[in-house]
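A.,

Following up on our hallway conversation. Structure tokens first:
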């Protein structure tokens, strides 16, 4: 194995040229088709990668006899990935889970916890410090781009909306200097786009006034509405997106109700929007209930999405594994299972990754919620996210792990519209090297805290922030909720 320090020393920067010899690159992270043809059974290629002036200048099949006179590092087969992209996060509410216990682990009670906690977000330093903690974790793990849903920008309180945008704008500027592109999604409960047009117009105008922000919506369970309601709501959303020139990012079909197929209705709305001149990118997050539709409906939806490009589908394996098929959330929605009644979940909460990709619909995976009421764990490590997606989706044999490495690199970059995500000549030398892993079976076996993060050709050394930094924000401040049923019913009545 390659000693970590040797990699750091070789990548310490300078004006010279460095050849990383004998690195192992996932096939999905290569742009050159001739290189892909040399992939092994796991979908990995042994390469020599040349770096100069912060960029990749050459990628070739490993040559055991390189030209003399060049600086070089024998990586001894170490895996080399492009820097990660985390295209779906919630940085505004992250690391707040100790302040409110989600008693059931369900979406319903997560919502109640969030509503209970939001008044604290206006307190000086609260959102700023929690968001900064998350972004430092992203830096450490090797992430170059993050899209966060701006929870709170849909709040009725102007002061909270202003605070969220203020913090986002400041962190976006700060972390641009550190190597992270930060984007935001301004979400609104979908029916409000049509039912409260003045609020929706203000919401869209606010989003358009902040660089790096796209328009979003929480779509809810469309099976509760009247026929035609969701069409009307989506049409209003896309009209505002067209008016302001905004891309769209939706939470849609995030449930395990087989009666809910909002994405099918979305296809019709997007077809109308495309015909009306809307050309923006659309990202569909979660889409879990699609896995519960009939084969005919699944085939129809997948085929329609494929011709509506640019459309991207994002899965969130940690959050949906935790949220779906909980007590109180099994169909029909709202059915409560006594807490003292044992019940093991039977469904993984994963969208149709393999079927979508087979139809050329780009798919990605992301952290989603980290240490909040929707998912109480995580650390913004895309490698962990990818590992979970591979395991949940049986991607190791579809056809192999290397074909899916772009879930957190190139495909995720496409969803954000930031480009790159490949190890190819002309790309920035923003990389993650794993000295302790030469193949996917080794990469998937451990957390790989010894990884080497490279930004613009230079190895960076950062430490993960200590959780104790946030003690004063969470200690002694816990509240307990009983249920979110009333809140959920209130939202449902608006459908």
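Then the amino acids I'd put at each of the 495 positions:
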């Amino acid at each position: 194995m390659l000693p970590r320090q040797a990699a750091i020393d070789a990548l310490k920067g300078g004006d010279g040229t460095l050849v990383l010899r004998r690195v192992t690159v996932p096939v999905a992270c290569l742009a050159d088709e001739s290189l892909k043809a040399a992939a092994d059974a796991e979908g990995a290629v042994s390469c020599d990668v040349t770096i100069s002036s912060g960029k990749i200048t050459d990628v070739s099949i490993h040559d055991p006899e390189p030209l003399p006179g060049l600086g070089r590092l024998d990586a001894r087969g170490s895996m080399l990935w492009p820097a990660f992209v985390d295209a779906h996060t919630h940085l505004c509410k992250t690391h707040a889970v100790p302040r409110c216990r989600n008693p059931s682990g369900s979406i319903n009670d997560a919502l109640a916890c969030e509503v209970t906690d939001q008044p604290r977000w206006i307190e000086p330093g609260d959102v700023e410090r929690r968001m900064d903690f998350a972004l430092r974790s992203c830096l450490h793990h090797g992430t170059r781009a993050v899209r966060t849903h701006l929870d709170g920008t849909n709040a009725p309180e102007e002061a909270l909306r202003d605070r969220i945008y203020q913090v986002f704008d400041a962190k976006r500027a700060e972390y641009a200097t550190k190597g992270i592109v930060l984007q935001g999604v301004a979400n609104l409960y979908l029916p409000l786009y049509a039912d409260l047009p003045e609020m929706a117009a203000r919401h869209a105008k606010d989003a358009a006034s902040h660089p790096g922000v796209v328009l979003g919506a929480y779509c809810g369970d469309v099976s509760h509405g009247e026929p035609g309601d969701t069409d009307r709501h989506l049409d209003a959303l896309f009209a505002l997106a067209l008016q302001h020139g905004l891309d769209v990012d939706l939470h849609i079909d995030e449930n395990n109700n087989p009666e809910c197929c909002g994405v099918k209705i979305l296809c019709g709305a997007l077809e109308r929007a495309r015909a009306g001149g809307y050309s923006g990118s659309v990202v569909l997050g979660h889409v879990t209930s699609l896995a519960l539709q009939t084969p005919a409906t699944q085939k129809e939806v997948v085929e329609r999405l494929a011709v509506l490009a640019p459309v991207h589908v994002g899965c969130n394996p940690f959050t949906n594994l935790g949220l779906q098929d909980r007590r109180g959330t099994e169909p029909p929605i709202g059915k409560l299972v006594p807490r003292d009644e044992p019940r093991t979940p039977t469904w993984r909460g994963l969208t149709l990754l393999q079927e979508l990709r087979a139809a050329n619909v780009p798919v990605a995976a992301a952290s989603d919620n980290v240490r909040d009421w929707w998912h109480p764990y995580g650390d913004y490590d895309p490698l962990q996210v990818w590992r979970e997606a591979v395991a949940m989706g049986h991607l190791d044999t579809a056809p192999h792990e290397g074909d899916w490495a772009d879930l957190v690199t190139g495909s995720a970059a496409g969803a954000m519209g930031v480009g790159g995500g490949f190890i190819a000549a002309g790309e920035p030398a923003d990389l993650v090297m794993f000295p302790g892993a030469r193949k996917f079976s080794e990469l998937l076996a451990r957390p790989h805290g010894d990884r080497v993060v490279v930004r613009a050709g230079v190895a960076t050394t950062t430490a993960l922030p200590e959780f104790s930094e946030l003690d004063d924000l969470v200690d002694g401040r816990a509240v307990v909720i009983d249920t979110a049923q009333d809140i959920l019913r209130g939202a449902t009545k608006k459908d």
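The two ends are 57 Å apart (CA to CA). Curious whether your intuition agrees with the design.

B.
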